[in-house]
Amino acid sequence: MAFPDVPKGTPLHALLVELHLLHARAGRPSLDEMVRAQARDPKGRFGRDAIHRLFSDCREAPKLPLLFEVVRILAALAPGADVEEQWERFDQLWMTVERYEALSLGQGFLYDGIGADDGSGDLDG
Predict the structure, then answer these.
(1) Does pTM surpass 0.90?
(2) Quick one: how far is CA 66 from the chain centroid?
(3) What is the pLDDT along the chain (125 residues), one digit of tens a residue?
């Protein structure tokens, strides 16, 4: 699958590199294989296009339910990978992307009780 045009050195780039590496470790299952491997009920399932966009056209933090489901599928297929460990790892990567995007947009906010600097000098948001 093609890699999105995301600036190198950004948290999103790091998350997507790790996702592509996990995909390779899992034997590079096709989009159709990933769609079929979903554990969700039919109402909560993700389509082929959503999974394709995650791998090839992602420009911002992906939706967490989609990311976690794809990580679950890939970790289950990857030899020696633990689903829970992969979820924790990708959750940390996702949180880093979220923080970076919020700061890049100039949004001051409180995260885990720590004020983020939006450049205004007011850390309380």
Answers:
(1) no
(2) 8
(3) 788 889 899 999 999 999 999 999 999 999 999 999 997 676 778 999 999 999 999 999 999 999 999 999 999 999 999 999 999 999 999 999 999 988 876 555 444 444 444 444 444 44
According to DSSP, the residues that pair with 114 across neighbouring strands are 111
Q: Long-range contact list for 65-69, CB < 8 A, 24+ apart?
A: 67/19, 67/94, 69/38, 69/39, 69/40
Per-residue b or e along 106-124, where b marks 16 or more CB atoms closer than 10 Å to that residue's CB: eebeeeeeeeeebeeeeee
- Contact present, 20 and 3 (Cβ < 8 Å): yes
Query: What would you measure as the largest C-alpha separation in the chain, in angstroms?
Result: 50
The continuous run of DSSP H or E covering 111 comes out as strand 110-111
Alpha helices in the chain (DSSP H): 11-25, 31-36, 48-56, 64-77, 83-104
Q: For residue 58, which of 7, 105, 5 has the smallest C-alpha distance?
A: 5
DSSP 8-class letter at 46: P
Instruction: Kindly give, in sequence order, each residue whose CB lies less than 8 Å from that of residue 37, ignoring residues fewer than 6 positions away.
Output: 29, 73, 76, 77
